[in-house]
Amino acid sequence: QVQLVESGGGLVQTGGSLRLSCAVSGSIFSINAMGWYRQSPGKQRELVASITSGGSTNYATSVKGRFTISRDNANNRLHLQMNSLKPEDTAVYYCYGDRSVVAGGVPIPFRSWGQGTQVTVSS
């Protein structure tokens, strides 16, 4: 069983920074890709950034150069450093982790989600 708990959200002014963390209960080594999605009212959930177990990263065009995703395997944590924040970054941010689970002897992909943390950027 793997559980994900986000922290670090809050209210910040335009141009400010926040660092989100996602604590993983259970072994982070059982998780393959991890990442962050965000969702604001009236909009679809958007992939913000992802990182593989090997450390390869991917970013949405809207955050590239401003956000940095990192994975701390020693402490079972995933981070998202967000700099130069804009009002359009306001959303609930969710972390996720992908792993394989065995059902009936067959490995199947499974995604775990955190509960979300609110980020609000004031203009």
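the 2nd protein, sequnce then structure:
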Amino acid sequence: EAHLVESGGEPVEAGGSLRLACTASRFSFDGSDMAWSRQAPGNECELVSSISVDGITYYADAVKGRFSISLDNAKNTVFLRMNGLKPEDTGVYFCAPSGGNSYAGPGTLCNFWGQGTQVTVSS
């Protein structure tokens, strides 16, 4: 069964940095757009960033200029570099295909492919 494993989340103070990683098991990123999304308690899943098969990136306005997404096809890993973290960045971060061959449809960006990784930013 294909699944994704997110890692790198931990408690951090405001202004700090983290790098999240998403590795794949029985899953290839080839032909798929990949996305990072987050979900805070009581909130809906929020798309944070994505990278297309052509390398085109998207960032939500809330993270633009602070976050950077990258893909290492050789390692079958997608990264999210987060700088200048704010308390409002707190949440569980998930990676998932957002388009292309492996996209599973609406509602699958959070809580579908993996367990996510917790990011907690204190003020």
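The chain has no helices and ten strands. The CA atoms of residues 6 and 22 lie 4 Å apart.
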